[in-house]
Amino acid sequence: MNFFPDAIVNRNATHSVASGRTGQPPSLIASLLANADWKFLGALFIFVYVVQAIYYCWFHQLCQVPGPFLARFSQAWRNIRYFKGTWLRDVTELHEKYGNVVRIAPNEVSFVDRDALRALYGHGKVSQKHPKLINRLLYRRYVPNMQISFFAATDIKLHRHLRSRVTAAYSMSSMLSMESLIQDVANQGWAKFRELVARGQPIELDKWVNYFTFDVVGTLALGGPLGMIQQEKDVDGIIGSIHDGFWLMANMGNMPLQMFWFNNPVAQWLIKKVGGKRLNAFSVFLDWLEVRVDSRMKNGLGGQRRDLLQHFIDAKDQSGNPVKKGDVMIEGVNILGAGADTTTVAILAVLGAVLQNPSHKQRLMAEIDQAYKDLGLTDKEEISFKDCENLPFLSAVVKESMRLHPSITYQLPRVLPAEGLQVGKYHFDQNVVCGISAASMNRSVDIFGPNASRWVPERWIAESEADKGRIGGMNRDLTTFGMGSRSCIGRNLALIEVHKYIAQFFRHFDAEIVNKDHPWVTKSQWFAIQRKFWVVLKERQH
After folding, report:
1. 238 three-class SS
2. Confidence class for position 29, pLDDT limits 50, 70, 90
3. Are 490 and 1 spatial neighbours (Cβ–Cβ below 8 Å)?
4. 488 appears as a binding residue in the annotation
5. In Å, how far from its chain's centre is CA 492?
6. How many CB atoms lie under 10 A from the CB of residue 463?
7. Residue 105: phi, psi to the nearest 5?
8. What domains can be seen in the chain, in order of their start residue?
């Protein structure tokens, strides 16, 4: 999955929104505030805002594009929904109401269009990540000397270099070489589930899947699990820190004048003093990670196996020199801060869909049981990823569930180049911000048919040559993992985890959703995370 947000920060930032590492507010600022003519400034602000609103509503080039009235002159329409965490639902309803081209902010449009998809995100395209929303100083604001990540790099050559130095670490061959480590974590999870079945109480399934994915990335990146499955809790508060940190960053990154309001010395001082746990959340995770990076860079592997962290440490910069600590920190943030939650969302999307469709669940269980029998697997042996890939209904269920509930649902904004972009009857000029959400794009009736909004895993099963052509077309425009040079670098790891988890879960367990009317609550905070997913777990007997 996409491991870090496309649009969370502003270029002009120089201080942390979350870390609170600032001193007292300077006396100069206090003096200016004390002597300001607030009535005049207030009147001037209102006048400028009204003039700007009139321009955006009736004279801007987007004035003919349909969309909510508030979105014509204010970013509030979009930002309110981001903060509420309802974007997964909002963006799909938005396009159902207004069509494939919708204005969601004064200078921003959202598309559900395959030509726009390829133009904005395809390989070799010249549209850029929104320059006001992407910032190479992001990481420096959280940890001293933090370097830029390829997720945030707007320079094409720099992005290519930064991505290339970690591509091998995330390759399918690299991930498969560590499949046994992933299986070890899964085995811990199944053993713990058997204990939970014996207790006879409902479990919050979303938490347990989150424990699994974090223990996996801990094992692959830091040499061992983080202990969440064994301790049955969010160890050191890392998950909560990351969730709260992403909620703040992803939402503040879309606020107008965000750095004026948040990243000034006065605001930073207030955040540190009275901001509370949520506003200072991400620094907890970063401090935790920094301790581990410092220890590894100082002491080395110490006879342990080579993990992803060591791969990041051994990488080279553009000049061929060893990377700095900031480069290593970035990659740690990428895999630990984003690599676990994206996979959690995917696994829960599949579990939720299957548990709500009993006939499909029975078909899936039958396919999995038959595979274990045909492969001659004993009670102590588990199915591999490669064997999971050969199960057509399992693969269809995974792909369909992730299509309707992608891990990343926020817009992925791009700023148009000089030639602009033609989408349907609309032509958009240079500097218009355009974007697509996987949540709405993956429901395109032009791509997935009239039942695009329904969960129908059979659409991915080919029974004729015509089906193969149709499925090939759907795969080309499926945006679950993004598209082009900035597609998800963690796709291979995610696919291995999801396929293995689903196959082994339904081999050994069944579950009944506690609240059938409202099975879970989805909160979009860059990731569309499912919460309060309560089930009664049952162990299957073979």
Report:
1. helix
2. low
3. yes
4. yes
5. 15
6. 8
7. -160, 165
8. 133-407+455-539 (1.10.630.10)
| Best CA proximity match to 19, nearest among 235, 241, 309, 293 | 241
Which residue in 491, 456, 488, 487 sits closest to 474, CA to CA? 456
Whether the CB-CB separation of 20 and 272 falls below 8 Å is answered with yes
Encoded amino acid at 530, one letter: Q
Q: Sign of torsion, CA 165 170 176 177?
A: positive
Please name the helix (run of DSSP H) or strand (run of DSSP E) that holds residue 203, with its range, or none.
strand 203-204
Nearest to 486 by CA among 10, 111, 121: 121
Backbone angles phi, psi at 389, to 5 degrees: -60, -25
Are residues 93 and 438 in contact, defined by beta-carbon separation less than 8 angstroms? Answer: no
- Fill in the DSSP letter of residue 431: T
- What is the pTM assigned to this prediction? 0.88
What SS3 class is residue 46?
A: helix
Give CA–CA dist 184/200, Å, rounded. 25
Identify the residue whose tokens are 């309560």.
Answer: 534
**Is residue 85 a contact partner of residue 524, using CB atoms and an 8 Å limit?**
yes
Alpha helices in 454-508 (DSSP H): 465-477, 491-508
Question: pLDDT tens digits for 196-229?
Answer: 999 999 999 999 999 999 999 999 999 999 999 9
- C-alpha–C-alpha distance, residues 278 and 18, integer Å: 8
Alpha helix stretches (DSSP H) within 59-101:
76-84, 87-98
